Every structure is written in C-alpha cells, then in structure tokens.
C-alpha cells in the first residue's frame, strides 16, 4: 500500500470547483440587471408614490436544505396584508396548502399591475446574486406552508429555489398544490443549465399570456 507524501499533496495545484448552474445564474442575472435597471427604478417610484409603506417587502421563505432566508419583492399589498392573511385562508381559490386569491383585497392597484406582469418578483435577482435563490427552481414557500407539507414535498428543497420554474411556465396559480409539487420534483430530477435555459425561454411567453398570474 502506498501513500501520497505531504509534499506531493501540497504540490498539486488547487482547482476550484465551479458549478455551471451557479455561473449561469450570476452571469445572466448581471446581464438582466444591466438591461432592466430603469424598469426597477420606475417600479420602485410607483410603489412608493401610490400607497403608504416601504418599497420592498422582505418575507421569510424556505430554501435549500430547509434553511430560511429573506426573499425580496416589490411591495404589491397594503401594509397590513400579513395581519389579514389568516382571514383570507378560507377564501383561497387554490386547492391545497398555499393561499392564492384571484381578487385579493390586500393587493394595491399598482400591485395588481406588478403581479400581472411579474414585475414584483424582479428584486429576487438580488437574492440570486446573494446565493439564496437561482433563476430557475421550485418557488420558495412560507415556513408555515412547509410545516404542513407531505413527506414527498420536502424533496423540492434539494435544490435552490427559483424565480421561475416548471410551475410558472405551466399555469402558475391555476394549478393545484399537488400539481405544483409534481412539477417541482420533476425539475429536481433533471436540473441542469440546459433545463434552466429552456425554462427561461418559456418564461417570457408565460408572462405575456399572464395565465395564473394573481
């Protein structure tokens, strides 16, 4: 049996492992920000001038490995929206755990426009740069939603959550909770840069159609 000497080990050049998906995320996110920064500025001004409250809404979500992080969005609801969430649960238009309302009274007039065109999600590009999210992946859920997940649903936390994904390009809130989980698990099984690129291309069409965007 032979062993490598310490000198031999130290003489080997270190080769940093670069995750192709992470590199894809960083490069494309920087390009998107370079192009869309005027839109982000206009949205920020619209939110600030049309309803009282902060420009951004930071909410705790569950990400990779079940760890929580602060997900950033443009505020699309009134300031008391979180306090009113409990009263909205029985009115949800979607089957399953996640709350979705087509005519949510907590959403501001500007917020309805932002949600229709998914503009409220743009600040999550900074979550991508921070490493909390990916451009493509399962949508990060609220801690209370994750606490109620069936066992199989936790497999969606094996990858970074995303801004867009299979769910977003397949109907969004029009799909049931179980359908969403099926799509998330399908993504986990085939995650790759090529898969992400295909989803990004389909995302533009999904945003234009606006199906399930509320």
Question: What's the order of the H and E elements?
Answer: HHEEHHHEHEHH
- Large-scale geometry: globular
Number of helices: 8
How many structural domains in the coordinates? 1
> What is the mean predicted local confidence, pLDDT?
86
Structural class per helix/strand content?
mainly alpha
- Spatially, the strands of the biggest sheet line up as 1-2
Helical content stands at: 40-55%
Largest sheet: 2 strands, antiparallel
Quote the beta fraction: 5-15%
Low-confidence stretches: 1-15
For the record, give the distance between the C-alpha atoms at the N and C termini, rounded to a whole number. 65 Å
The value of Rg in angstroms is 20 Å
Describe the 3D structure.
The protein is built from eight helices and four strands. A two-stranded antiparallel sheet has the order 1-2. The protein has a two-stranded parallel ribbon with strand order 3-4. The longest helix is centred in the N-terminal third of the chain and has 31 residues, at 20-50. It has helices spanning 6-11, 20-50, 85-88, 109-116, 124-130, 143-147, 177-189, 193-209, and strands at 56-62, 68-74, 134-136, 162-164. The chain starts with 5 loop residues before the first helix and ends in a 5-residue tail after the last helix. Helices cover 43% and strands 9% of the residues. It has one domain.
